Amino acid sequence: ILNVEQSPQSLHVQEGDSTNFTCSFPSSNFYALHWYRWETAKSPEALFVMTLNGDEKKKGRISATLNTKEGYSYLYIKGSQPEDSATYLCASAMDSSYKLIFGSGTRLLVRP
Amino acid sequence: DVKVTQSSRYLVKRTGEKVFLECVQDMDHENMFWYRQDPGLGLRLIYFSYDVKMKEKGDIPEGYSVSREKKERFSLILESASTNQTSMYLCASTPSMGIKGYTFGSGTRLTVV
Description:
The complex is a heterodimer of chains A (112) and B (113). Chain A has 112 residues and is mainly β. Chain A contains no helices and 11 strands. In chain A, the strands form 2 sheets. In chain A, strands 2, 4, 5, 9, 10 and 11 form a 6-stranded mixed beta sheet that branches. In chain A, strand 9 and strand 10 form a beta hairpin. Chain A starts with a strand and ends with a strand. Chain B is mostly beta strands and 113 residues long. Chain B is built from no helices and 11 strands. Chain B has strands spanning 4-6, 10-13, 19-25, 31-37, 44-49, 56-57, 64-70, 73-78, 87-94, 103-104, 108-112. The radius of gyration of chain B is 13 Å and the shape is globular. Chain B starts with a strand and ends with a strand. Chain A binds chain B through residues 1, 4, 31-32, 34, 36, 41-49, 51, 89, 91, 93, 98-105, and chain B through 4, 31, 33, 35, 40-45, 48, 50, 58-59, 90, 94, 96, 99-107.
């Protein structure tokens, strides 16, 4: 099993702070990189799917970048809000089979 | 607006029982997946299915089987539940056209006593 690593494991920030987390994945046989947000008592929700080296995607205050050559992706949250509190999962697809390998997530808590 | 429905949110079963976890999606997706999530670990793939009656083992299939008799329904079966199968189970689906994110169900928290 190839590993997807996420850091940090958890993060506590103040409202208004900007923050970022890292996802590392095997750079060989890369096909796609996914980010999900998982709020407590809800379903994980897809944020971004990226496939190309240098890809950068944005949704409101959240953005993500992708480096497939070195095998990492960053997720940025600008001006964190309490409603951003969630576990952020990244997952890598190694081929076109639609199977994903998930990291263990970064748990973000934003204090008001 | 619910697109992937898991039949139970919480379930408590006894060791040795046969357990069925049901997942239904209404988006006509070809691909469906069962994952389990345990503290400190990422989602781990149990089984997946590309089409009706098609199934493939994921990374941790031992102790589980699946059934996909209709496109919209993917069932996970614990043949003889054990305490180490206490976990959060998540079902997901995705279409075969393009590269899209998964749509997840809300999860079933199973406790085996």
